[in-house]
Amino acid sequence: MTTNPRPGDLAGGHGGHGGLRVMSFNLRFASETGPHPWSERRPVMRRLLHRQAPHLLGTQEGLYGQLRDIAHDLGSRYAWLGMGRHGGSRDEFTAVFYDATRLAPEEYDHFWLSDTPSLIGSATWGNVIVRMATWARFADRRTGKRFHVLNTHLDHVHQYARERSADLITSRLGPDPALPRIVTGDFNVPAHRNPVYTAMLTKGALVDTWDSAAERGPQYATFHGYRPLVPDGDRIDWILTSPSVRTWRAEINTFSENGNFPSDHLPVQALVDL
Length: 274
Hints:
With 274 residues, the protein is α+β, with helices and mostly antiparallel strands. The protein has helices spanning 9-12, 38-52, 64-74, 159-171, 195-202, 209-212; strands at residues 20-26, 56-60, 78-81, 96-99, 103-112, 132-140, 146-153, 181-186, 207-208, 215-216, 237-241, 246-252, 268-273. Strand 1 (20-26), helix 2 (38-52) and strand 2 (56-60) form a beta-alpha-beta unit.
């Protein structure tokens, strides 16, 4: 029988709950120029991920070498799948990491947020930066349940591109509507205050884990840009699920060390039962 976790179980990464620990995290691409270089952020990222031990981690902005660093730091029980948005290992990824002792991928693919979603590197909606989505079907080794995951990063400038992207994503959330869905991403618009959010929930038949959670931590703006955190600020990074998925707890994680954050975004987390 599943029991409701105590506050802090998700933040501790363990706690004995049988649910699935999900995280969405814009990593801030690796660079050694300017402040907050990856070489300084990587140890903080490592300790955060070790502390939280997500079963499923949807990432945005990661570069290939950076993702390899994270894979090394997570250890041998983790694996990942993804493709650079210009194909192969080029440019940023929407990579998905998973705990291979808990989850087994059965199928995965990518598509581009454009009028030609099968064309690698395509962008047709006015956005200069190529945008894409990575999806997979997993089986939970513990429960035997299967589910779909989709991870994405919408454009940061063009509202038209974001709205078209939401329409495309909700039309391609998974070929089997009977299976639960988990959607992670940086949507670059605030929850509850943009048509993209409305479309993702209504057209995608999804719920926001932050709203549906039985318990939640304090809210902060999920993009901080290495400036002081903003309580009750905009959530532009979301974890969405099918309504059948039960969310026990949702968190916006503010972990840092000596004022050093692992990214310019805060990771969002949810403890869910499929």
